[in-house]
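Attaching the record inline, Q. Sequence:
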Amino acid sequence: MQIDEIPKYESYEDSGADWAQTLPSEWAVEKAKWLFLRADRTVHPDDGIVTCFRDGEVTLRSNRRTDGFTNALKEHGYQRIHEGDLVIHAMDAFAGAIGVSDSTGKSTPVYSACVERTSNTLNAYFYAYYLRSLALSGYLKSLAKGIRERSTDFRFADFAKLVLAFPPIDTQNTIVRFLNEKAAKIDKAIAIKERQIALLKERKQIVIQNAVTNGLNPNAPMKDSGVDWIGQIPMHWEVKPGLVAFTENRRNNVGLQEQRVLSLSYGKVIIKSLDKMTGLVPESFETYQIVYPDDVIIRGTDLQNDQKSLRTGLAKDRGIITSAYICLSLKNGYNAEFFHKYLHAMDISKSIYRFGTGLRQNLSYADFKRMPILIPPRDEQATIIRDVSKLEEKLEDAISIMNKQILALLEYKATLINNAVTGKIKVV
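Structure, as predicted:
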Protein backbone atom coordinates (compact mmCIF):
# COMPACT_ATOMS: atom_id res chain seq x y z
CA MET A 1 0.00 0.00 0.00
CA GLN A 2 1.36 3.40 -0.98
CA ILE A 3 1.22 5.89 1.89
CA ASP A 4 -0.24 8.61 -0.31
CA GLU A 5 -3.19 6.29 -1.04
CA ILE A 6 -4.26 6.27 2.62
CA PRO A 7 -6.95 8.90 3.39
CA LYS A 8 -6.30 11.95 5.55
CA TYR A 9 -8.34 13.58 8.29
CA GLU A 10 -10.98 16.11 7.26
CA SER A 11 -9.29 19.12 8.83
CA TYR A 12 -6.04 20.05 10.54
CA GLU A 13 -4.99 22.78 12.98
CA ASP A 14 -1.73 24.29 14.13
CA SER A 15 -0.27 21.87 16.66
CA GLY A 16 1.78 24.36 18.64
CA ALA A 17 4.52 21.71 18.79
CA ASP A 18 7.82 22.02 16.98
CA TRP A 19 7.84 18.34 15.91
CA ALA A 20 4.68 18.75 13.79
CA GLN A 21 3.26 21.88 12.21
CA THR A 22 -0.32 20.59 12.13
CA LEU A 23 -2.39 17.84 13.71
CA PRO A 24 -5.92 16.59 13.03
CA SER A 25 -8.48 19.02 14.45
CA GLU A 26 -10.00 16.30 16.62
CA TRP A 27 -6.66 15.62 18.32
CA ALA A 28 -5.40 17.46 21.38
CA VAL A 29 -1.85 18.12 22.54
CA GLU A 30 -0.67 17.81 26.11
CA LYS A 31 2.56 17.81 28.05
CA ALA A 32 3.69 14.34 28.99
CA LYS A 33 3.59 15.14 32.71
CA TRP A 34 -0.22 15.52 32.49
CA LEU A 35 -0.56 12.19 30.69
CA PHE A 36 1.98 9.99 32.47
CA LEU A 37 3.28 9.32 35.96
CA ARG A 38 6.59 7.69 36.72
CA ALA A 39 5.96 4.47 38.64
CA ASP A 40 7.91 3.96 41.87
CA ARG A 41 7.60 0.38 43.05
CA THR A 42 9.56 -1.85 45.40
CA VAL A 43 11.13 -4.90 43.79
CA HIS A 44 10.23 -8.45 44.81
CA PRO A 45 12.90 -10.97 45.82
CA ASP A 46 12.17 -13.28 42.90
CA ASP A 47 11.98 -10.58 40.20
CA GLY A 48 14.02 -11.18 37.06
CA ILE A 49 15.83 -8.36 35.32
CA VAL A 50 13.90 -6.48 32.64
CA THR A 51 15.91 -4.96 29.78
CA CYS A 52 14.86 -2.27 27.30
CA PHE A 53 16.54 -2.92 23.94
CA ARG A 54 17.20 -0.46 21.14
CA ASP A 55 14.77 -2.25 18.81
CA GLY A 56 11.94 -1.34 21.18
CA GLU A 57 11.53 -4.73 22.86
CA VAL A 58 11.19 -4.58 26.65
CA THR A 59 11.35 -8.00 28.20
CA LEU A 60 13.00 -10.16 30.82
CA ARG A 61 16.66 -10.48 29.99
CA SER A 62 16.30 -14.26 30.21
CA ASN A 63 13.75 -14.17 27.37
CA ARG A 64 16.27 -12.80 24.89
CA ARG A 65 19.89 -13.25 25.91
CA THR A 66 21.93 -13.27 29.10
CA ASP A 67 25.42 -12.48 27.82
CA GLY A 68 26.96 -9.12 26.98
CA PHE A 69 25.51 -7.28 30.00
CA THR A 70 27.26 -5.57 32.90
CA ASN A 71 25.78 -6.83 36.15
CA ALA A 72 25.63 -4.52 39.16
CA LEU A 73 27.24 -5.82 42.34
CA LYS A 74 24.56 -4.03 44.34
CA GLU A 75 21.13 -3.36 42.89
CA HIS A 76 20.89 0.07 44.45
CA GLY A 77 17.83 2.00 43.34
CA TYR A 78 16.35 -0.86 41.29
CA GLN A 79 12.63 -0.52 40.62
CA ARG A 80 9.80 -2.81 39.68
CA ILE A 81 8.51 -2.89 36.11
CA HIS A 82 5.01 -4.19 35.40
CA GLU A 83 3.81 -5.78 32.20
CA GLY A 84 2.21 -3.03 30.12
CA ASP A 85 4.40 -0.19 31.42
CA LEU A 86 5.78 2.26 28.87
CA VAL A 87 9.53 2.06 29.50
CA ILE A 88 12.10 4.68 28.49
CA HIS A 89 15.82 3.96 28.67
CA ALA A 90 17.30 7.32 29.69
CA MET A 91 20.71 6.63 28.10
CA ASP A 92 19.55 4.88 24.92
CA ALA A 93 16.17 6.48 24.22
CA PHE A 94 17.72 8.52 21.40
CA ALA A 95 18.52 5.21 19.63
CA GLY A 96 15.03 3.75 20.03
CA ALA A 97 15.21 2.06 23.43
CA ILE A 98 11.58 2.82 24.25
CA GLY A 99 8.81 0.24 24.41
CA VAL A 100 6.05 -1.48 26.34
CA SER A 101 7.19 -4.19 28.73
CA ASP A 102 5.86 -7.67 28.05
CA SER A 103 7.07 -8.85 31.46
CA THR A 104 7.04 -8.03 35.14
CA GLY A 105 10.40 -7.78 36.85
CA LYS A 106 13.02 -5.32 38.09
CA SER A 107 15.19 -2.80 36.30
CA THR A 108 18.03 -0.38 36.79
CA PRO A 109 16.96 3.14 37.86
CA VAL A 110 18.16 4.45 34.50
CA TYR A 111 14.79 3.28 33.15
CA SER A 112 11.59 5.29 33.50
CA ALA A 113 8.47 3.14 33.99
CA CYS A 114 5.60 5.34 32.80
CA VAL A 115 1.93 4.72 33.56
CA GLU A 116 -1.17 6.68 32.60
CA ARG A 117 -2.20 9.42 34.99
CA THR A 118 -5.93 8.98 34.20
CA SER A 119 -7.39 5.53 33.56
CA ASN A 120 -8.54 4.56 30.07
CA THR A 121 -7.10 7.61 28.32
CA LEU A 122 -3.83 6.21 26.94
CA ASN A 123 -2.67 3.27 24.89
CA ALA A 124 0.94 2.64 25.93
CA TYR A 125 1.71 1.01 22.57
CA PHE A 126 0.61 4.16 20.72
CA TYR A 127 3.09 6.23 22.70
CA ALA A 128 5.81 3.62 22.24
CA TYR A 129 5.38 3.91 18.47
CA TYR A 130 5.13 7.68 18.79
CA LEU A 131 8.23 8.21 20.97
CA ARG A 132 10.37 5.76 19.00
CA SER A 133 9.46 7.66 15.84
CA LEU A 134 10.57 10.93 17.46
CA ALA A 135 13.74 9.24 18.71
CA LEU A 136 14.78 7.69 15.41
CA SER A 137 14.12 10.99 13.59
CA GLY A 138 16.73 12.62 15.85
CA TYR A 139 14.22 14.80 17.69
CA LEU A 140 14.90 13.44 21.20
CA LYS A 141 18.62 13.85 20.74
CA SER A 142 18.11 17.48 19.80
CA LEU A 143 16.32 18.05 23.13
CA ALA A 144 18.84 16.32 25.36
CA LYS A 145 20.85 18.27 27.89
CA GLY A 146 23.47 15.65 28.72
CA ILE A 147 25.52 14.64 25.71
CA ARG A 148 27.95 11.75 25.93
CA GLU A 149 29.85 9.83 23.33
CA ARG A 150 27.31 7.58 21.57
CA SER A 151 24.73 8.30 24.25
CA THR A 152 22.22 11.02 25.14
CA ASP A 153 20.43 11.57 28.45
CA PHE A 154 16.60 11.61 28.27
CA ARG A 155 15.24 11.16 31.76
CA PHE A 156 11.65 11.35 32.99
CA ALA A 157 12.04 15.06 33.84
CA ASP A 158 12.92 15.70 30.19
CA PHE A 159 10.09 13.48 28.99
CA ALA A 160 7.61 15.26 31.30
CA LYS A 161 8.21 18.57 29.50
CA LEU A 162 7.62 17.09 26.06
CA VAL A 163 4.46 18.21 24.26
CA LEU A 164 2.74 15.08 22.93
CA ALA A 165 -0.08 14.42 20.51
CA PHE A 166 -3.15 13.28 22.44
CA PRO A 167 -5.71 11.65 20.14
CA PRO A 168 -8.95 10.16 21.52
CA ILE A 169 -8.33 6.72 23.04
CA ASP A 170 -10.38 5.00 20.31
CA THR A 171 -8.14 6.61 17.70
CA GLN A 172 -5.03 5.51 19.58
CA ASN A 173 -6.32 1.94 19.68
CA THR A 174 -7.13 1.98 15.96
CA ILE A 175 -3.66 3.28 15.07
CA VAL A 176 -2.00 0.62 17.22
CA ARG A 177 -3.99 -2.19 15.58
CA PHE A 178 -3.13 -0.82 12.13
CA LEU A 179 0.58 -0.44 12.87
CA ASN A 180 0.85 -3.83 14.57
CA GLU A 181 -0.60 -5.50 11.49
CA LYS A 182 1.50 -3.55 8.98
CA ALA A 183 4.71 -3.78 11.01
CA ALA A 184 4.31 -7.55 11.36
CA LYS A 185 3.97 -7.96 7.59
CA ILE A 186 6.98 -5.72 6.92
CA ASP A 187 9.07 -7.52 9.55
CA LYS A 188 8.14 -10.87 8.01
CA ALA A 189 9.23 -9.67 4.55
CA ILE A 190 12.51 -8.41 6.02
CA ALA A 191 13.10 -11.72 7.83
CA ILE A 192 12.60 -13.64 4.56
CA LYS A 193 15.14 -11.45 2.78
CA GLU A 194 17.61 -11.79 5.67
CA ARG A 195 17.34 -15.58 5.43
CA GLN A 196 17.92 -15.34 1.68
CA ILE A 197 21.02 -13.24 2.31
CA ALA A 198 22.29 -15.80 4.81
CA LEU A 199 21.79 -18.57 2.23
CA LEU A 200 23.64 -16.56 -0.42
CA LYS A 201 26.54 -15.98 1.98
CA GLU A 202 26.58 -19.68 2.82
CA ARG A 203 26.55 -20.48 -0.89
CA LYS A 204 29.50 -18.13 -1.38
CA GLN A 205 31.54 -19.92 1.30
CA ILE A 206 30.70 -23.33 -0.16
CA VAL A 207 31.76 -22.19 -3.64
CA ILE A 208 35.08 -20.92 -2.30
CA GLN A 209 35.77 -24.02 -0.20
CA ASN A 210 34.91 -26.45 -2.99
CA ALA A 211 37.01 -24.53 -5.51
CA VAL A 212 40.16 -24.34 -3.39
CA THR A 213 39.93 -27.94 -2.15
CA ASN A 214 38.40 -29.77 -5.14
CA GLY A 215 39.02 -27.54 -8.15
CA LEU A 216 36.50 -26.55 -10.82
CA ASN A 217 36.10 -29.86 -12.66
CA PRO A 218 33.59 -32.10 -10.82
CA ASN A 219 34.63 -35.04 -13.05
CA ALA A 220 38.36 -34.80 -12.34
CA PRO A 221 40.00 -38.03 -11.11
CA MET A 222 40.47 -37.84 -7.33
CA LYS A 223 42.87 -39.24 -4.76
CA ASP A 224 43.10 -39.33 -1.00
CA SER A 225 44.93 -36.24 0.28
CA GLY A 226 46.22 -38.07 3.35
CA VAL A 227 44.80 -35.27 5.50
CA ASP A 228 41.63 -36.19 7.41
CA TRP A 229 40.00 -32.75 7.31
CA ILE A 230 40.69 -32.28 3.59
CA GLY A 231 39.62 -35.67 2.23
CA GLN A 232 39.94 -36.30 -1.47
CA ILE A 233 41.61 -33.89 -3.89
CA PRO A 234 42.20 -33.84 -7.67
CA MET A 235 44.75 -36.45 -8.74
CA HIS A 236 47.20 -33.88 -10.13
CA TRP A 237 47.22 -31.65 -7.02
CA GLU A 238 49.91 -31.86 -4.36
CA VAL A 239 49.86 -31.58 -0.58
CA LYS A 240 52.89 -29.76 0.80
CA PRO A 241 53.80 -28.01 4.05
CA GLY A 242 53.15 -24.27 4.11
CA LEU A 243 56.84 -23.39 3.96
CA VAL A 244 56.79 -24.40 0.28
CA ALA A 245 54.60 -21.40 -0.59
CA PHE A 246 54.80 -19.03 2.39
CA THR A 247 57.54 -16.85 3.75
CA GLU A 248 57.15 -14.73 6.86
CA ASN A 249 57.09 -11.00 6.38
CA ARG A 250 59.64 -9.56 8.80
CA ARG A 251 60.01 -6.12 7.24
CA ASN A 252 60.21 -3.87 10.31
CA ASN A 253 59.26 -0.24 9.95
CA VAL A 254 62.50 1.07 11.47
CA GLY A 255 63.57 4.36 9.92
CA LEU A 256 60.59 4.65 7.58
CA GLN A 257 57.84 7.26 7.63
CA GLU A 258 54.81 5.12 6.75
CA GLN A 259 51.44 6.77 7.48
CA ARG A 260 49.01 4.12 6.22
CA VAL A 261 48.07 2.00 9.26
CA LEU A 262 46.28 -1.23 8.37
CA SER A 263 44.02 -3.53 10.35
CA LEU A 264 41.84 -6.59 9.77
CA SER A 265 38.08 -6.13 9.92
CA TYR A 266 35.54 -8.84 9.04
CA GLY A 267 37.93 -10.60 6.69
CA LYS A 268 39.11 -7.42 4.93
CA VAL A 269 42.37 -5.51 5.33
CA ILE A 270 41.36 -1.90 5.91
CA ILE A 271 43.15 1.41 6.32
CA LYS A 272 42.65 2.78 9.85
CA SER A 273 41.99 6.44 10.44
CA LEU A 274 44.49 7.82 12.94
CA ASP A 275 41.93 10.49 13.84
CA LYS A 276 39.65 7.77 15.22
CA MET A 277 42.40 6.02 17.20
CA THR A 278 41.96 8.40 20.15
CA GLY A 279 44.22 7.25 22.96
CA LEU A 280 45.40 4.27 20.92
CA VAL A 281 48.02 5.87 18.66
CA PRO A 282 51.44 4.55 19.74
CA GLU A 283 54.36 6.91 20.32
CA SER A 284 56.26 5.12 17.57
CA PHE A 285 55.31 2.84 14.68
CA GLU A 286 58.81 1.34 14.50
CA THR A 287 57.65 -2.03 15.87
CA TYR A 288 55.01 -2.27 13.13
CA GLN A 289 55.53 -4.48 10.09
CA ILE A 290 55.54 -3.19 6.55
CA VAL A 291 52.81 -4.79 4.45
CA TYR A 292 52.86 -4.98 0.68
CA PRO A 293 50.04 -5.77 -1.76
CA ASP A 294 49.29 -9.52 -1.92
CA ASP A 295 50.53 -10.20 1.61
CA VAL A 296 48.14 -12.52 3.46
CA ILE A 297 47.34 -11.08 6.90
CA ILE A 298 46.42 -13.46 9.72
CA ARG A 299 45.19 -12.64 13.20
CA GLY A 300 46.66 -15.53 15.11
CA THR A 301 45.67 -14.78 18.70
CA ASP A 302 42.96 -16.16 20.95
CA LEU A 303 41.41 -18.72 18.61
CA GLN A 304 39.42 -20.39 21.39
CA ASN A 305 37.34 -17.25 22.03
CA ASP A 306 36.81 -16.35 18.38
CA GLN A 307 33.30 -17.20 17.23
CA LYS A 308 33.18 -15.03 14.11
CA SER A 309 36.23 -16.36 12.28
CA LEU A 310 37.21 -14.09 9.37
CA ARG A 311 40.71 -13.85 10.78
CA THR A 312 42.37 -13.86 7.33
CA GLY A 313 42.70 -11.01 4.84
CA LEU A 314 44.56 -10.09 1.68
CA ALA A 315 46.37 -6.75 1.54
CA LYS A 316 45.61 -4.57 -1.47
CA ASP A 317 47.69 -1.57 -0.37
CA ARG A 318 51.11 -0.94 1.09
CA GLY A 319 51.04 0.07 4.74
CA ILE A 320 52.05 -0.95 8.22
CA ILE A 321 50.37 -3.26 10.70
CA THR A 322 50.98 -4.14 14.33
CA SER A 323 53.32 -7.04 15.00
CA ALA A 324 50.40 -8.86 16.65
CA TYR A 325 49.46 -10.02 13.13
CA ILE A 326 51.18 -12.67 11.05
CA CYS A 327 52.09 -11.44 7.57
CA LEU A 328 52.59 -14.18 4.98
CA SER A 329 54.20 -13.40 1.65
CA LEU A 330 53.78 -15.80 -1.25
CA LYS A 331 56.83 -17.11 -3.04
CA ASN A 332 57.28 -16.35 -6.72
CA GLY A 333 54.70 -17.96 -8.95
CA TYR A 334 52.13 -18.72 -6.28
CA ASN A 335 48.78 -16.99 -6.52
CA ALA A 336 48.24 -14.91 -3.37
CA GLU A 337 44.45 -14.75 -3.87
CA PHE A 338 44.22 -18.55 -4.16
CA PHE A 339 46.13 -19.19 -0.94
CA HIS A 340 44.27 -16.44 0.86
CA LYS A 341 40.99 -18.12 -0.08
CA TYR A 342 42.40 -21.49 0.94
CA LEU A 343 43.31 -20.18 4.41
CA HIS A 344 39.96 -18.36 4.54
CA ALA A 345 38.16 -21.67 3.85
CA MET A 346 40.15 -23.27 6.68
CA ASP A 347 39.17 -20.33 8.86
CA ILE A 348 35.44 -20.64 8.11
CA SER A 349 35.47 -24.41 8.65
CA LYS A 350 37.57 -23.87 11.80
CA SER A 351 40.12 -26.39 10.50
CA ILE A 352 42.76 -23.73 11.14
CA TYR A 353 42.07 -24.00 14.87
CA ARG A 354 43.76 -27.40 15.15
CA PHE A 355 47.13 -25.76 14.55
CA GLY A 356 46.84 -23.32 17.45
CA THR A 357 49.19 -23.80 20.37
CA GLY A 358 49.26 -22.72 24.00
CA LEU A 359 46.47 -22.14 26.46
CA ARG A 360 44.74 -19.61 24.21
CA GLN A 361 45.42 -21.54 21.00
CA ASN A 362 47.55 -18.87 19.32
CA LEU A 363 48.97 -19.26 15.81
CA SER A 364 52.50 -18.37 14.74
CA TYR A 365 54.44 -18.52 11.50
CA ALA A 366 55.89 -21.84 12.69
CA ASP A 367 52.35 -23.28 12.59
CA PHE A 368 51.87 -22.13 9.00
CA LYS A 369 55.22 -23.61 7.99
CA ARG A 370 54.05 -27.09 8.96
CA MET A 371 50.40 -26.68 7.97
CA PRO A 372 49.37 -28.94 5.04
CA ILE A 373 48.34 -26.87 2.04
CA LEU A 374 46.94 -27.87 -1.33
CA ILE A 375 48.97 -26.87 -4.36
CA PRO A 376 47.25 -27.05 -7.76
CA PRO A 377 49.31 -26.26 -10.89
CA ARG A 378 50.05 -22.54 -10.97
CA ASP A 379 47.95 -21.82 -14.05
CA GLU A 380 45.02 -23.64 -12.43
CA GLN A 381 45.33 -21.45 -9.32
CA ALA A 382 44.73 -18.39 -11.51
CA THR A 383 41.83 -20.05 -13.34
CA ILE A 384 40.14 -20.99 -10.07
CA ILE A 385 40.41 -17.44 -8.75
CA ARG A 386 39.10 -15.95 -11.98
CA ASP A 387 36.01 -18.18 -12.07
CA VAL A 388 35.33 -17.97 -8.34
CA SER A 389 35.63 -14.17 -8.43
CA LYS A 390 33.02 -13.96 -11.18
CA LEU A 391 30.57 -16.08 -9.19
CA GLU A 392 31.34 -14.15 -5.99
CA GLU A 393 30.57 -10.91 -7.80
CA LYS A 394 27.17 -12.23 -8.90
CA LEU A 395 26.36 -13.38 -5.37
CA GLU A 396 27.51 -10.07 -3.88
CA ASP A 397 25.32 -8.20 -6.39
CA ALA A 398 22.32 -10.30 -5.33
CA ILE A 399 23.10 -9.64 -1.65
CA SER A 400 23.44 -5.91 -2.35
CA ILE A 401 20.05 -5.82 -4.06
CA MET A 402 18.39 -7.56 -1.10
CA ASN A 403 20.08 -5.23 1.38
CA LYS A 404 18.70 -2.27 -0.58
CA GLN A 405 15.24 -3.87 -0.51
CA ILE A 406 15.51 -4.32 3.27
CA LEU A 407 16.54 -0.68 3.65
CA ALA A 408 13.56 0.40 1.55
CA LEU A 409 11.21 -1.68 3.71
CA LEU A 410 12.67 -0.18 6.90
CA GLU A 411 12.27 3.32 5.50
CA TYR A 412 8.67 2.59 4.47
CA LYS A 413 7.92 1.21 7.94
CA ALA A 414 9.41 4.27 9.66
CA THR A 415 7.49 6.65 7.39
CA LEU A 416 4.24 4.74 7.87
CA ILE A 417 4.59 4.84 11.65
CA ASN A 418 5.48 8.53 11.69
CA ASN A 419 2.56 9.45 9.43
CA ALA A 420 0.10 7.40 11.50
CA VAL A 421 1.11 8.67 14.95
CA THR A 422 1.28 12.30 13.85
CA GLY A 423 -2.05 12.22 12.03
CA LYS A 424 -0.74 12.74 8.52
CA ILE A 425 -2.85 9.72 7.52
CA LYS A 426 -6.15 8.45 8.90
CA VAL A 427 -6.22 4.72 9.48
CA VAL A 428 -9.35 2.68 10.04
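The first helix runs from residue 32 to 35. The chain has nine helices and 26 strands.

More tomorrow.
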